[in-house]
Design a protein that fits this description.
Elements: H1 21-28, E1 32-36, E2 39-42, H2 44-63, E3 67-68, E4 74-76, H3 77-83, H4 85-88, E5 94-97, E6 103-106, H5 111-121, E7 130-139, E8 154-164, H6 167-187, E9 192-196, E10 206-213, E11 219-223, E12 230-232, E13 253-256, H7 263-270, E14 278-285, E15 288-295, H8 302-309, E16 314-316, H9 319-326, E17 342-346, E18 355-358, E19 364-369, H10 371-374, E20 377-381, E21 400-414, H11 416-420, E22 424-426, E23 432-434, E24 436-443, H12 444-454, E25 456-457, E26 460-461, E27 472-476, H13 482-497, E28 502-505, H14 511-521, E29 525-529, H15 531-536, E30 538-543, E31 549-553, H16 557-571
Parallel strand pairs: 3-7, 15-17, 17-20, 27-28, 27-29
Antiparallel strand pairs: 1-2, 4-6, 5-6, 7-8, 8-24, 9-10, 10-21, 11-12, 11-21, 13-19, 14-15, 14-16, 18-19, 21-24, 22-23, 25-26, 29-30, 30-31
Helix pairs in contact: 1-12, 2-6, 2-12
This protein binds one RNA strand through strand 8, strand 16, strand 21, strand 24 and helix 12.
Amino acid sequence: MRLSRYYAPTLKETPAEAEVVSHKLLLRAGMIRKLTAGIYTYLPLGLKALNNVANIVREEMDRAGALEILMPAVQPADLWKESGRWEFYGRELLRFVDRHDRESCLGPTHEEVVTDLVRHEIRSYRQLPVNLYQIQMKFRDEIRPRFGLMRGREFVMKDAYSFDKDDAGADASYWAMYKAYARIFERLGLKFRAVSADSGAIGGSFSHEFMVLAATGEDTIASCPACDYGANLEKAEAVCPPPGQLAPCPAAETVATPGKHTVEEVAAFLGVDAKKIVKTLLYVADGKPVAALVRGDRALNEVKLKNLIDAKDLRLASPEEVVAATKAPVGFAGPVGLAGITLYADQELALENGWIVGANTADAHLRQVDLSRDAKVASFTDLREVAPGDPCPKCGAALAFTKGIEVGHVFKLGLKYSKALNATFLDEAGKEQFMIMGCYGIGVSRIVAACIEQNNDEAGIVFPPPIAPFEVALINLGPKDEAAVAKADELYDALNKAGVETLLDDRDERPGVKFKDADLMGFPIQLTLGGKGLARGIVETKDRRTGEKGELPLEGFLEAFMAWRENVRQGWGLE
RNA sequence: CGGGAUGUGGCUCAGUCUGGCUAGAGCGCUGCGUUCGGGACGCAGAAGUCGGAGGUUCGAAUCCUCUCAUCCCGACCA
């Protein structure tokens, strides 16, 4: 492709709307343009990058035995009512009525549609397993779309669904997808990590997330440097010794703590460690107040609490609600005498006695509290957030934290949808059984953004070769010099014939402009053809990732180029 | 949805607090000339209902009310 006839409007300045680096660079490099909040047009360069990702995903899905289909974006409400998600999916499901007043929605995911498809066709265990996938535009009416392609309302997703006749088969399908995903991210040239994860609203028994590592990632990954344990912080288990016999403690007593609301203030005022204090957090779960107790120096993991009590909606109580529940201002809530509110304690709180807790009275705390004696705790379970340095649940080594961007998620769904939608088959014994499902998503458009979050510098994007819209930018510094033009055309043709996608910058621009644009757009390889080099019979080279410059002879160029290109690819960790 | 902020040529912003002449700058764009190895320079030009509606005022980009949009922080998620 010739840049002079391409549509890649680059921007010198960053549009005010962009905050994160991938969004800024995608706009600046002329890859995307916003239509409205969370909805973007892919320009030629952006689309090429997107398609490069999609094609690798497709190849690996095919290799893993999945079959590509294409399902509709518009879906009837009836199906969603049948699965129960019409009520429960929430306002992210974009609903509308058509001219016949039929309720419909734009698909945010396709469990209902595939399950409906399969239940009509598959009758026998002989037809199983089957794994169907698609690469398609999803719509989720996000409360707050943000960060450009990172969280759009419309986004390209690869979603696959497996149906198996038994649990062993379902596990095999799951791990086949897991392996395919690992291959995909390796082939894309991205640094990633697979971690065990919470299965969230989609439901199911277990799941893994694939995270692209990037300092700007929204998710925190707790991973073990010694073994292969890795988990999303939401899911990471806290290790806790089993509770022993607790020494009895004297009767609880009230102590004045005037104006001391926070754990830190109370600890400092009483001259004790925050570890001796119990934090009482009031939440509203599906409209009902609940209290969660964690040690003063710990953070509550809301996902764990939500899963424990199986709540659909969980939020921190407002100050007014706290006052209503505890009869005391915020900061003095405690587990003792909290009438009508279920208490859930972190497992660590069963290990010791003599806690300091809020007194449910302004400016007062209780000490010498025995939680089993003085309060009615419903359960002691893992509720806290893991912290860096905590022991690995598998091997005990100190966990380290890194930031990542979730780009893929594999779920073992089990019977959730097959039961809801009655997807059954006859087994060997002629007995009707529910199919066992798995679902597997990859955020194709998000990968493009995540890839840029991971690979960029001051000058712009640094695309890994497999994702780059063009692998090579061929810069002709002398677009008016016939000899240079002829040579540029010759190299351009040779590269394209050799299967190396090349963008020829044949614009009548000053050299600086061309260099800046090539850097910004992030092509892995830059070749510069200028008067100086031409006279000496060489082309200049630049590896965008390392910034390293070199030369290649014009005589026997292609061969020398292909060899050097191999080095560049190896630098990316590609085969 | 709760909290915070912003809307002024295509882009980045100044001007708004303290109302007042023809609304400015840089980038970009068009033409001409000089340039030409890391976002050139000169000259000439095109381009703005100051997000929208209503109000206050002799007079509104500026003050008031409403509204729309966008961005950031939270809950959700590929």
